[in-house]
Amino acid sequence: AWMVDDDEGDEREVTHVRLCMFPDGGIARFRLYGVVVPVFPSASKEGGQQEVELSAATMGGLVVRASGEHFGSRASNLLLPGRGVDMGGGWETKRSREQGHVDWVIVRLGAKGKVNRVVVDTAFYRGNFPRAMRVHALEMGKGITTTTTTPPEAHDERWREVVGLQELGPDKEHEYRMGADEGLRKVERVAYTHLKLTIVPDGGVKRFRVFGTRA
Predict the structure, then answer these.
(1) Phi, psi dihedrals of residue 69, rounded to the nearest 5°
(2) What average pLDDT does the structure give for the chain?
(3) Smallest Cα–Cα separation from 70: which of 134, 128, 136?
(4) pTM of the full structure
(5) Nearest residue to 135 (alpha-carbon basis) of 108, 163, 156, 113
(6) Among positive and negative, which fits the CA dihedral 168, 171, 177, 180?
(7) Which residues of the chain have pLDDT under 50?
(8) CA pseudo-torsion sign 13, 190, 154, 136
(9) N or C: which terminus of the chain carries fewer CB neighbours within 10 A?
(10) Beta-sheet strands, E only, within the chain
């Protein structure tokens, strides 16, 4: 692996990279690591921001902390497109018999935004889905797209509960909207940078989606 020389500073953005090999031969993988710079849709004709999936990996969303990962399932799978094809493409935690145990994952949004709805998807998890979940949100100010920003801790006092404890079912998309019964709260006229999904007590979740508009 090599670090990229960047004479123009850390803020340079690129859209294409060319790989040259000398003189010939075979390469199994070519991987690039960095920070996604999202391309957001233009404002609507009425002048307002369009709703986007602020948490999506393709929009710069990033899992910055997780309580655990089991069966080789990475928490970052929660932010992938689509609903997957089996249980292998989600986030699953190991079973715990400890009283009061919970698991959690913290997501940094691709941009600071106002949250309109949250989706917790248990697709393909029919016998090992969490019993319940809740969602918290936090605002950390500017500079959230940098890799040098220290992410918030799970027990940070600034977290605000935006979705109270809700039961989950198997193989289903659970959607929580602003203003709906048992839906989002404390999101009106407030912009957030991070959301935390807490599952009770453990289990598997396929996707965690946060929709809203840029602040």
Answers:
(1) -140, 130
(2) 89
(3) 128
(4) 0.87
(5) 163
(6) negative
(7) 143, 145
(8) negative
(9) N
(10) 52-53, 62-66, 91-92, 103-121, 132-138, 160-167, 173-177, 192-200, 204-205, 207-214
Residue 132: what are its φ and ψ, rounded to 5°? -160, 175
Residues in the chain: 215
Question: Which structure tokens are listed for 171?
Answer: 């193989």
Q: How far is CA 78 from the centre of its chain?
A: 6
Angle made by CA atoms 93, 97, 100, in degrees to the nearest 5 = 90
Number of neighbouring beta carbons within 10 Å of residue 187: 21
Do the beta carbons of residue 107 and residue 101 sit within 8 Å? no
Contact 173, 119 (CB under 8 A): yes
